[in-house]
Amino acid sequence: MSIIKNKDGLLFYQREAEKYMRQMRERPFDSGQELHQYLYPYILCKYSLINEAPDVYELDDLAELSVAKTIRLSKTDAFHADSASSCEGTTSAMNKKVLLLMAIQRELEIRFPAGTTADLTDTYKIADAVFALLQQKK
């Protein structure tokens, strides 16, 4: 059964993502590295990949793995099937990355500076950027 048809699976990932986000909102962090310990599993939950993508930190790779899991193809086959998916020229993986960054900003009430989101290519860079923005909120 695919993840799309498995309501319990989707609810599990949603609950887990909310748990990690709540911890990110409530905990003080001393570094982006420390924040990453909560942000990384949050991202894996948002991409329905918890326990399935250990040590994968590149956002492109995670998004492509998530799309592949959703449509039940290998990462390579999913990439080829999705390459020209819309008239705007964006893939589902690109859309997932944008939506993830939007969710992080909304849920933590932060805003990445204009023009910097293209630099957020891996989970460590996102954690460092989020940490810096959370420090500014204090």
What does this structure look like?
There is one protein chain. It contains six helices and no strands. It is mostly helical. Helix 2 packs across helix 6 (123-137). The protein is globular, with a radius of gyration of 15 Å. The chain starts with 6 loop residues before the first helix and ends with a helix.
Which descriptor suits the 3D outline?
Answer: globular
Q: β content, as a range?
A: under 5%
Low-pLDDT runs: 1-5
What distance separates the N and C termini? 45 Å
Task: Tell me the series of helices and strands, N- to C-terminal.
Answer: HHHHHH
Radius of gyration: 15 Å
Helical proportion, percent range? 55-70%
Number of helices: 6
Sheet with the most strands?
Answer: none
Mean pLDDT score: 85
Structural class: mainly alpha
Please tally the β strands and state the result. Answer: 0
Report a brief summary of the structure.
The chain is mainly alpha-helical. The chain is 64% helix and 0% strand. It has 6 helices and no strands.
Give keywords:
138 residues, 6 helices
Topology:
Blueprint: H1 7-26, H2 32-46, H3 59-71, H4 75-82, H5 92-108, H6 123-137
Helix pairs in contact: 1-2, 2-6, 3-4, 3-5
